[in-house]
Amino acid sequence: MLTDAEPFLQRIRAFPDDDVPRLIFADWLEEQGGAGVARATFIRVQVALAGLPEEDARRPKLVLAEQKLLETHRDEWEAPFRRLATGPVFRRGFVDEVNVTARQFLQHTHELFAAGPVRHLHLIEVGGNLQTIMQSPYLSRLSALSLFALHAGEGLARAVARSPHLTGLQELHLGRNRLGDEAAEYLAGSPILGNLEVLDLSENNLGETGARALAASPHFGKLRCLDLRHNPLGPAGAESLAGSDRLTSLHRLVLAGNEIGVPRLHSLARISDLLFVPSLDLTGNNLTPAGLKTILTRPHGNAATIRLRELDLSHNDLGEVGARVLAASPTLDGLKRLRLAGCGIPDEGARILAHSPHLNRLVAIDLGNNPVGDPGFRGFLETPYLRGLRRLVVPGVGVSLQIQRALDQRFHRGLTRF
User: Fold this and answer.
1) Which helix (H) or strand (E) segment is 3 a member of?
2) CA-CA-CA-CA torsion for 334, 340, 343, 346, nearest 10 degrees?
3) Would you kindly state where each structural domain of the chain is located, as residue ranges?
4) What are phi and psi of 58, to 5 degrees?
5) Strand partners, 338
6) To 10 degrees, what angle do helices 59-78 and 36-50 make?
7) Helix or strand or coil: residue 171?
8) CB of 255 within 8 A of CB of 280?
9) 310: phi then psi, degrees, rounded to nearest 5
């Protein structure tokens, strides 16, 4: 049967982004009967899931079917990858993502890619093999590459930026590698990385200079998600990224723990450019209500359309005053999702948020880990606004069962994900 299946598998490997060969193979498997029927069903379920948005009502049933099939058949379907890789992840019916050591990659590359249409590699235990790996033509089969916590420094950035086999890469994850500003300059200057849509440089040593290099890159026009959490960029670095005229496709900017909430924030002329990023994460930046107001105040004469739809301000000490700043800001009129976990917001702050006309388009708000109890959440039950709210996260303690049930009934809590 494996021999008969090989022509189907060859086409799937040759066209990994195309669902049609996968569905044709599923039809063939079903015709064979026996164990092939379950695999055919699994392929169809995962292909269907891949095409549905997160909030689609059909997802829960498909996810349950996916889980049951994996629980029953995982060992069988993962068998081709034993000794070759660990941690296989299935997408669209086949193993798509694996962890491999440098030794496994160099000794069994052909077998690894023959076992399935692998598109995402997590390279671990690389040691002194980095340069050799980066010259492997098999890297051209990848859409995503993760090199996490190798602590390889600028040498890693140079090797990646110069590899001729990464031109098709869409995702690059280089978190926790001791990359500094010079490393950012290597990456930003590489035309090889011109197809990147996701770039993760979290937990490195990038400062304002590195941020400016990324913002000025002529090669990152397709970049949709940039994750720079836990880098000392400061407010000027954040400003340069948000205001970049080169990062034209940027949809999500993660600036958690970037030391943005410092006094220098108030002296920047264009810090409100952050409002033009659709999804913005400012978690844990020591932002004060005054700093938040500076960000949310649109500069006079700036005609650019505010695109902010998702905002995460969790773990900044905002309190009631910060809630008032948010509630009074017309620049948040289009906001859909707001995270305020651990912001020290009391009952009155929650009530103020619930009665804000500027937050009327919210579909999700997270007030977890705040000192809010029944009085604050009664504001959500009494407000004439928030008619579209479908996800409300409340603290784990301090809210009565009666109020929780009333919130569930009004807002159908849990149907919408953050």
Assistant:
1) helix 2-14
2) 80
3) 86-411
4) -80, -15
5) 311, 365
6) 130
7) strand
8) yes
9) -130, 130
Residues near 230 by Cβ (< 8 Å), separated by ≥ 6? 202, 203, 204, 256, 257, 258
Q: How far is CA 11 from the centre of its chain?
A: 30
In CATH, the number for domain 86-411 is 3.80.10.10
Each residue's pLDDT, cut to its tens digit, for the chain (418 residues) gives 456 889 999 999 999 999 999 999 999 999 999 989 999 999 999 999 999 988 788 999 999 999 999 999 999 999 999 999 999 999 999 999 999 999 999 999 999 999 999 999 999 999 899 999 999 999 999 999 999 999 889 999 999 999 999 999 999 999 999 999 999 999 999 999 999 999 999 999 999 999 999 999 999 999 999 999 999 999 999 999 999 999 999 999 999 999 999 888 988 988 999 999 999 999 999 999 999 999 999 765 565 688 999 999 999 999 999 999 999 999 999 999 999 999 999 999 999 999 999 999 999 999 999 999 999 999 999 999 999 999 999 998 999 999 999 999 888 765 555 5
Which sign, positive or negative, has the C-alpha torsion 280, 283, 285, 291?
positive
By DSSP bridging, strand 86-91 and strand 94-101 are: antiparallel
* Other residues' Cβ atoms within 10 Å of the Cβ of residue 73: 14
Tell whether pTM > 0.90. Answer: yes
Q: Please say whether the beta carbons of 353 and 359 come within 8 A.
A: yes
d(CA 144, CA 173): 8
Report residue 273 as tokens.
């450019």
Which H or E run includes 61?
helix 59-78
- The DSSP secondary-structure symbol of 196 reads -
Rounded Cα distance between 15 and 18, Å, is 6
Long-range contacts of 383-388 (CB under 8 A, 24+ apart): 383/354, 383/355, 385/354, 385/355, 385/356, 385/357, 385/359, 385/360, 386/354, 386/359, 386/360, 386/362, 386/411, 387/360, 388/360, 388/361, 388/362, 388/363
CA–CA distances in Å: residue 302 to residues 228, 270, 276: 26, 10, 11
Q: Which of 339, 284, 336 is nearest to 306 (CA)?
A: 336
